[in-house]
Amino acid sequence: MPMIQSKVEYLFGAPEIEVIAEEPYAKKQCDFLQALSGAIRSDKEAKRYSDIQTFAFWIRKASLMQMRDDYLWGRRCYRMGRGLIFHVAPSNVPINFAYSLVYGLLSGNANVIKVSSRRFVQTVILCRIMQEMVGREEFAWVGRQNAVVLYERDRKDATDELSAMCDVRIIWGGDATITQIRKSPMQPMSTEVTFADRYSFGVISTDAVLKMEEAELSRLAEAFYNDTYLMDQNACSSPHVIFWWGGVNGDRRKAAQKRFWRAVRQAAQKYGLEAGKVSDKYTLLCRMAEKLEHARVHCYENRLYVVDLQAFSDSVTAYRGAYGFFFQYGIKELEELFEYVDDRKIQTCAVCGVDPGELAEGIRAHHIRGIDRIVPFGHTLDLGMIWDGYDIIERLTRCIDGPRASEARFREDRKR
Q1: 199-376 has which CATH code?
Q2: Average pLDDT, stretch 188-214?
Q3: CATH number of 9-197+389-415
Q4: Closest listed residue to residue 94, CA positions, set 131, 112, 121, 113
Q5: DSSP secondary structure of 351-409
Q6: What is the average pLDDT across 303-325?
Q7: Domains of the chain: which residue ranges?
Q8: Buried b (16+ CB within 10 A) or exposed e, 323-347
Q9: CA–CA separation, 31 vs 296, rounded Å?
Q10: Which residues are 239's β-sheet partners?
Q11: Which pLDDT band, with edges at 50, 70 and 90, does 80 fall under?
Q12: Which end of the chain is more exposed for a tag (fewer CB within 10 A), N or C?
C-alpha cells in the first residue's frame, strides 16, 4: 500500500506499508517482541530511562505468553487482524506509542503510528533499536509492515490521508484531540477506538493504614508515588481524590491520613520539582481556593499539597491535581462512594485495604457508568490487553463466524 504523499518524517519503517492481516499472537509477532525486550535491556542509552525499561519488562517472554494464553482460552471464534491501523499517540506520555504498537502487532495488523512532534528522546531511542533489529532477516517484515511517523499536529492533510487508508484508527489524547482528528473521514467499513480524557481516584481503609508496620507503609507510599508522581499525575489512571473509608472516630481517620501523607512526602523527596511545576501547582491551589468553601490545605513542602474536602460541590472529576496535588474526603461506608463516582469519565479505582469484589458488586448494583478498573496502589499504570473497558484484541480484529475454537486447537496453538 503506498504511504502518504504529504511530507512527514519517518522515525521507523518505510514510505510504503505491506498490509497483511494475520492471526493474533502469531509466533513471529511474539518472537520479535521478545527480541525487542532483550535489545532494550542491553542498550546502554535505553537503560537510562525507567519508562523504556518498564516497557521492555512488559513485552518479555513470560508476559507475552500469559497474554496469549488468556486470549486463546477465551477465544470463541477464529480471529484475524483488520488490516492497517493508524495510531495517534498522545503528546504527554513519551513511551505510549510503543504500547500502542504492541496492540497492533499482537492483534495481527500492520501499523502506522503518529508520534508527538515534541520528539521525545525515548521515542527516538526505541525507533533506533527497532530499526537496528529489522536489519536482521528474521525481523525484516516488521520494517515492511510498520512505520512510526512524525509531523506537526496542524498537518491535517497528513492525518486525512492516513485516516482515509486505515481499517482502524486509534486515538490516544484529550477530548479536543479526538474531536479534531474525527474531522478526517475514514472508509465506510473502518472502525475507531478512542482513549479520551479519563479520571481516576483511590480508596484507602483507615484501619488498614493504622495497622501497618513502617516497612509496609513505606511500600504503600512508594506504590502511590509510582502511580502519581512518575507521570506528574497526567496519566489517565493516576489518582486525584483519595476517599478514606472507615474511621467513624474522626481522630482515627486524621491519624491514618497523617501517617500516610508523611510517608508519601518521604517517598516524594526524589521527585524532580522544577520551578515551572511549583508555579503551576501554586496557581492551581489558588484557583481551587476560590471555588472551595471551608477547605483545609495541608502543604508538605512544595512536593505535596493535600486538600481536605468538606463536600462535593461538583462532579468528583472536577477535582484534578498535578505535580503532587491531591484531594481527600472521608466516607463511613463504601456505599457512600457510589454517590460521587457515577461518571463515564472515571477509569481506575486504586485500593488499599478494600475488597475489589465488594467494589465491583457495588458498581453493578448501582449501575455505575464509569470505573473500568479496580487495582491495588502501585498498579494503576499497568497497561494490559483490557484497557478503558475495551478488549483490545476483540476491537482490532474481525471474527470469522462458524468454526469454533476447540480445546485441541488451543493446545496446538499454545505449542507454537
Answers
A1: 3.40.309.10
A2: 95
A3: 3.40.605.10
A4: 121
A5: EESS-HHHHHHHHHHTT-S---EEEETT-TT---SEETTEEHHHHTEEEE-SS---HHH
A6: 90
A7: 9-197+389-415, 199-376
A8: bbbbbbbbbeebeebbebbbbebbb
A9: 54
A10: 200
A11: very high
A12: C
